[in-house]
Specification:
Elements (H helix, E strand, L loop, with lengths): L1 H23 L4 H28 L95 E3 L7 E3 L3 E4 L2 E2 L9 E2 L3 E6 L5 H7 L5 E7 L4 E11 L2 E16 L5 E2 L6 E6 L8 E2 L8 E9 L3 E11 L5 E13 L3
Helix pairs in contact: 1-2
């Protein structure tokens, strides 16, 4: 019992000693904390030794409950002032608006491409020519001065361009495209309105088909290409255009007239509202009259240009054409 009291008294004295040291060292927090740790360790060591001694003597010491050391209360942390800003701070935390989940949008399906209709086949065949009854009834000759008996004039006042009244002439110039010689160019043709008495007697019946006049277009040693044309007012209907042409295409005069042997040396074509024709050959050959006929139709009354083209493509000794007795007749039935 005396031992317990002794231990108790010694422990309290030691505690008071330590407490006095802590009060004396409040100005140095860090050193006080170290001292407190060391004193507490010393007290714990002493108590441990005392308890060990008592245990060794089979005596249990009733130790008072340890009173915890007072805990130093730290001052609250300073309040930080917000940094200066030109934008006022929000007074309330904005509520985040929920973003609705994006519904995947299906890509629009492209409208089916329309397949263009198959184009109707183009008829490349020319329209059939107008038909003429087996035994047609014709009007009279509608051409102005078709037989060339109605006088003549000099085109542009040039005496080398004698033309029958009511007609005009066009002609080509420049390269023919049929050769590269110096003479392979189109020359201006000469034209004559010839009365029978200006022809040799043995040629009068040859070059005049009707009446007393014939027309001659010619050029020696040079190609020619010309068109004899007329503008005429016609009522709607079907017409037959008929011309007689004598191709006097002479390659040489040695031993008499030697006509050109190339059938392409002389050609004829029609000009009409239907587009006319392409170039036509003299099927009977040269040195004889050839007859050509062209049928066309117009749907309305109109003034049309009709005519005939003639050409001699080579530089023959004489490229010559006689023509007479032309007619344009309307089919009446």
């Amino acid at each position: 019992m005396n031992l317990r009291r002794s231990v108790f008294s010694w422990r309290w004295l030691l505690f008071l000693f330590v407490l006095g040291g802590l009060v004396a060292c409040q100005s140095e927090p860090e050193a006080a904390q170290v001292a407190e740790v060391d004193v507490q360790a010393t007290v714990d060591t002493a108590v441990s030794l005392t308890v060990a001694a008592l245990t060794a003597n089979n005596e249990v010491a009733e130790l008072p409950s340890a009173t915890p050391a007072p805990t130093e209360t730290l001052p609250p942390p300073p309040t930080l002032e917000p940094p200066a800003t030109s934008t006022p701070l929000p007074t309330a935390v904005p509520t985040e608006t929920a973003v609705p989940a994006e519904t995947p949008t299906e890509e629009p399906t492209a409208a089916p491409t329309a397949v263009p209709p198959t184009a109707a086949p183009v008829n490349t065949q020319p329209p059939p020519p107008p038909t003429v009854p087996p035994v047609p009834v014709f009007s009279g000759n509608l051409l102005v001065n078709g037989s060339f008996e109605g006088g003549w004039y000099n085109m542009n006042g040039a005496p080398e361009f004698q033309l029958p009244n009511g007609w005009i002439m066009e002609y080509d110039s420049g390269p023919t495209g049929y050769g590269n010689q110096a003479w392979d160019i189109w020359f201006p043709p000469e034209t004559r309105v010839l009365p029978y008495y200006q022809l040799p007697e043995h040629e009068r019946g040859l070059f005049i088909r009707e009446g007393e006049y014939t027309i001659k277009a010619f050029k020696g040693n040079g190609p020619i290409s010309l068109r004899l044309l007329q503008d005429i007012a016609l009522p709607a209907g079907t017409y037959v255009f008929t011309v007689y042409i004598y191709p006097d295409l002479v390659a040489s005069y040695d031993g008499g007239k030697q006509f050109a042997g190339d059938p392409n040396a002389g050609e004829v074509r029609f000009i009409s509202p239907s587009g006319g024709t392409g170039w036509l050959l003299f099927g009977a050959g040269f040195g004889t009259w050839g007859v050509f006929e062209h049928t066309f139709t117009i749907d309305t009354d109109q003034t049309v240009r009709i005519g005939v083209g003639m050409r001699g493509r080579y530089g023959l000794a004489s490229n010559g054409f006689f023509f007479d007795d032309w007619s344009l007749r309307r089919v009446e039935n």
